[in-house]
Amino acid sequence: MNKKKALLPLTSFGARILLAVAGIAAAAGAFFILPAWFSVSYSSEATSTPAAVKPLPQLDKVAYDARLLALAHVATSSPWYAGFLAGATTTLQADASVGSPTSTSVGVVPLWPARAAYPNYGALLPFNRVVAYYGNFYSKQMGVLGEYSEEVVLEKLRAEVAVWEAADPTTPVVPAIEYIDVTAQAAGGKDGKYRLRMPDSQIDKALEMSKKVDGIVILDIQVGLSTAQEELPLLDKYWAMPQVHLALDPEFAMHGGTPPGRVIGTMSAEDINWAAQYLAKIVRDNNLPPKILVVHRFTEEMVTGYKRIRPLPEVQIVVQMDGWGFAAKKINTYNVVVYPEPVQFAGLKLFYKNDLKQEPSRLLTPQEILRLTPSPIFIQYQ
Length: 382
Fold this sequence. Notes:
Blueprint: E1 10-13, E2 17-21, E3 32-33, H1 61-71, H2 79-85, E4 91-94, E5 105-108, E6 129-135, H3 144-147, H4 150-167, E7 173-184, E8 195-197, H5 200-212, E9 216-221, H6 228-231, H7 236-239, E10 244-248, E11 267-268, H8 269-286, E12 291-297, E13 303-304, E14 315-321, H9 327-337, E15 345-350, H10 366-370, E16 378-381
Parallel strand pairs: 6-7, 6-16, 7-9, 9-10, 10-12, 11-13, 12-14, 14-15, 15-16
Antiparallel strand pairs: 1-2, 2-3, 4-5, 7-8
């Protein structure tokens, strides 16, 4: 997948806010500038105390594993199917070595399904597929959330949910509003961190929208020269809500003082594990169902040390291929950056506009996406 190209449109918010898109647009414009006066600091006080709930029942591990096997397209007649359900980590495969005098079998470790910690009861994945609409309410260039009115966004989201329910009737669909709450910036700002935080009112708007479709909210974080360690604690009152989840965008995680947009950023396994562990403590402290942590990726270098990434009982991890391009290119990128480096679950982003820039000008169909290995359980539209 080629680097994402910069978009340079101008848009306005009232008569006071100028949004300028700059740099490499990971989400085809998911990177913009606002005046420094607009930057906010979040209140650390929770608006309400989560109610205590009774201990949750146990996860049905057999049903969970069976769904993982289905996503990996493992036939029920395959020895690996029975082996995986029995807890095996290897399966036998015919030895195709050139010059082998006899027919023998060797032990192999299939890439998928990925072995990871079982989630606590109440996990959304893989029992549901998440279909998310992405963007920022202040920018028409960052995705559908800012491009249309709330009524149109929700109407379009409901329509996409229906498409996916029809394409895979065995998997219920959970709608999601993925709101870019911390946005990478071309200018350093007062603290030189090249990121801008949105006001709580915008997160509250995302929460209200999600209620109207019985969905969830995903807060997307582009750290710039800040860090997840600095940004996540400022959102604690939202992480304490059962319907709020997290996405990290390594493209805009910069190092060595380089501003976002100059090169593609990167996150290590340690960065991702820190975020997962941070959320896990909040889940435990508030007796919540597991959170989802989405990690955006369209190059191999954007995520390093994938074998060290540790999903937790409290946090499920999705690696989402979010590059844009024509259908065959997207499939190829998925097969290069997602398939060979399994973590837990896989996702795919579709761009209503950028995916149509090259011929053949069309979006991947749900049927084509479902045939990928593994089938993405998280679908995002920008």
